[in-house]
Design a protein that fits this description.
single chain; 20% strand; five-stranded mixed sheet; 9 strands; alpha+beta
Amino acid sequence: MTRQIVVWVLQRLKINAHYAAVVVPSVCLRAVGTVFLLYNIVNQMFNQNFMIMKNIKSFAGAMMAALLCLAMWPAQAQSKYGEIENTQDKIEDLYLKVYTIVDDYPHMTHEYIYDGDKLTGVRIDGVDNKRAKDQLEIYLVDLENLKRNIYNQSNRFGIYYTTETEPKPKMGYRDFYSELQSNLSYPERAKDNNVEGTVFVKFVVDHNGEISFVKTAEDIEAPMDYIVDAMKEEAKEAVLATSGQWEPAKIGGVPVAEWMLIPVQFKLEDNSYFLSPL
């Protein structure tokens, strides 16, 4: 029994010696190697994450700047378009004022005077009333300056008010007005009440030369509103009948949509006349 114990102890010692001499160092080296490998992996991940975080931070900054610009853009665009549309309204108001005076002076002509690129005045012929002439000069100069302020600029709907090449009837304005008057139906109620005057028709000539968005204003005195309404409707129909007969406005040779405003005259006697475009 004692001998067996001694043998068993010697065997254990031999095994433990082998384990201590060979297995333990091997396992330790592997463990150290694994730890070192894990360290490198963690370090690389940290560095990569650092760079990622840095890039994310830069990207986030760029995104915030872009979002800020996008947030500000509608307000800026709104402000820009608001100014353009406000100017368009002023132009339309001046058109009406000019045509209202010119209606009494059918042979009026005008020519703008420039000093280089600067508008200095306007020469008006065919108006013998000094007050009317002076008022026309103010209106026409203001009108031209406003048009220059929004030259080649559209409103938020992509419609222009003044461009490099203005829209015009393919047949020319004189023949256009002649045809317009021949197609114009004078409401019987207006005739019966001796109502005459001018309806101002505002419309868009699109890039195909088609007419749309027709609106009206008038310089007519009538005893009943429905008479004026009938005259406005007839003027709209006469203008719409010319759809497709227009050369569209152009910018850089590219057709664009542009607002137009023309006077349509209702005269009890056949003495309507051609009003040159302003």
